[in-house]
Structures are given as C-alpha cells and as structure tokens.
Amino acid sequence: MSEVLKKRIKDHEGYSDRPYFDHLGFATIGYGHRITDKDEFKEGAQYPKEKLLELFEKDFEKALMGCDQLVGHIVELHQEAKNVITEMIFQMGTQGVRNFAKTLLCLEEKDYKGAAREMLDSKWNVQTPKRCQSLAQIMERCN
User: Fold this and answer.
1) What pLDDT digit, counting tens, does each position of 24-48 carry?
2) What dihedral do alpha carbons 41, 43, 45, 50 form, nearest 10°?
C-alpha cells in the first residue's frame, strides 16, 4: 500500500532536480522537499535523482511518523484515511495538519464524510484545490 501512496504523493508534488520556489514562495526541490537551512542546495544547480529519491524517502518516513502521532491512537481507522493524513502531512507538516482540528475530530468518530467536508472548508483548498479535492474524495469513500 505504501508504494501506491508514494506514487500518489510524487504525482501530486511533481519533480524538479533543481531548486525552485513553490506557489507559497518556499524554496523546494525533488518531490516537494522544502529546503531548510540544514540543506546544502545551491540555486540553479542540478542534483542527481538518486539523492533526491533518498530525500523523498526521509520526508515520507517523517510523514508516516506524523500520521502516527496525530491519528495512530484511533482504533480501526480506515487505512485510506491514514494515507490521506500522511499525504497532508507530507505537504503541510505535522503541525500544519494538527491545525485541522475539526477534521481530526471527525476521524476520532470515524465520520469520514465530515472529515472530507472539513478538509474542503480550508485555506488549503484555496491554495491547492486539485489536491485537496482529490484527497477529500478519497476520505469521503472510506467506510
């Protein structure tokens, strides 16, 4: 299942072997990796895909850990709901998704349709509507 999730994240993120600024103005590279002060990427330089795939794997593992922090305690939560939360964390970080308090409350109650509604009622839906709407549809289909 995680290979399917990884592919979906990669498809949503797109790929660049050179640093660029995303739609919010953050320096980014590879499959949506936000460049931090700890990274040593140089503007305009091109980087090998192998290095950027390793970075993706680290970012993916962080997203999985974040998902476990936010919803890991919910017994019998649908796997696709966990996958949606993991992808949201990949894009926005654990703290960013923690701010989706109503979505997380709906998941506590296994109200997947409510969770999808709350996802759509967000600034995220304005910023990246295609991705948000796609993930909300997946969330809504969970049972």
Assistant:
1) 899 999 999 999 999 999 999 999 9
2) 40
